Amino acid sequence: MERSKLELEFIFKASPTILYKFFTTPDCLIRWFCDEVDIQGEEFTFVWSGSAEMADLVEDVENENIKFKWQDSDDDDEFLEFNINTSPVTGETILLLTDFCDDDEVEDQTQYWAEQMDRLRKATGG
Known about the structure:
Blueprint: E1 3-12, H1 16-24, H2 26-32, E2 36-40, E3 43-48, E4 51-61, E5 65-70, E6 80-86, E7 93-102, H3 106-124
Antiparallel strand pairs: 1-7, 2-3, 3-4, 4-5, 5-6, 6-7
């Protein structure tokens, strides 16, 4: 099965500092992303419905960028990245999300991230 790279953009009212906190702290991650999370240095263990997935934090630029590499990924070029920017025109926070999925899952994965971003928006107050 071929893989597709998803690059999605979402607008937030929350500041980059607040968004960054929601990608890097356990208390915030469980409010929108996963059921449980354990962070040991650069290794994150995310749990959904009792199933654990481990990821290595491979890039971390405070208030700007978080990039994870899934440990069980078959492709070394695949990752999950959250890039945080501020619009110079509107002052809104722009979140650029990069993820990968099977070609036949693009629509479902796009919908999944839209729902997760709605949860994140509610958790961050905008």
